[in-house]
Amino acid sequence: MDTAAVILGLLLCAALGVIVWLVTQLNQARSEVAELTDAIGTIEADPGFPRSPRTAQAVQTAGLAMRTAMDTVSRLRERGVRSTLLTSIDDFTRWALEDRSEIARVAGPDGEVTIFFSDIENSTALNSELGDEEWVKLLAAHDRLLHTYVDRHRGLIVKSQGDGYMVVFSTPELAIGASLDIQRALSAKRQRSRRLRRTPIRVRIGLHTGTAIEKEGDYFGRNVAMAARVAAMADGGEILVSTDIADALADSTEFRFTEEDTVEFKGLPGEHLLWSVEPA
Fold it and tell me: pTM value?
């Protein structure tokens, strides 16, 4: 069961208990509050009662407290327990959702994310050829394009470093959809970005799906390393995916997978079959 759901359930039970107790206590105190209010009114009207600034302030404060308690009882009676409880549920739900980690917000129902890595092919040579000033402007055009399609497919950008990006999506379909749109936009004959028209770039993309560990806004774990290794094997303009993704979408009518290479990855035991992906 999702940890956030368990916490939410416990909080709701606690909230219900507090509300029931509060209603009981307020009902019991109602008559006492009324009596105290009358007593305070008598004291305030009695000219023989010894007075001082401190006494007057205490009487005024007590009167305000009693009137506030009475108002609370009245509002609770008017709104009813159900309305009060629903308000509390809304508040606790909002708190629970805000307190969830980024990975919980992005992950699919099974707790998995699809991890996307990309970078620009031959970026070091291109930087040297263009010079730093022009290179930075080209990177800005690349970044705008990538952000557009990541947002469109509801991805979460985890981090970027130079020309490389790490993004997570809730499903492989969304990740592949964003990847295909990025490659289409970069290879389009009528490129919208003047700078990308003048200096075409080729981006390589790798995808893998699985659980990950989120800490302080970054993601860690074997599956993150796997996605990075897959991306490193791609050529510019290519999208490579792991067998996990190819198997999960084997029956898809949207994408076509082509078997590429069987490779070994440093630090990851066994051999790994990679697949390229294109629109069906």
Answer: 0.64
Q: Strand 239-242 and strand 268-279: pairing?
A: antiparallel
Highest mean pLDDT among 94-103, 112-121, 181-190: 112-121
Residue ranges of domains in the chain? 3-100, 105-279
Distance of alpha carbon 108 from its chain centroid, rounded? 12
12 has pLDDT over 70:
no
* Helix, strand, coil % over all residues of the chain, rounded to 5: 60, 20, 20
Q: Which CATH number does the domain 105-279 belong to among 1.10.10.10, 3.30.70.1230, 3.60.21.10, 3.30.70.100?
A: 3.30.70.1230
Exposed e or buried b per residue across 14-43, where buried means at least 16 C-beta atoms within 10 angstroms of its C-beta: ebeeebeeebeebeeeeeebeebbeebeee
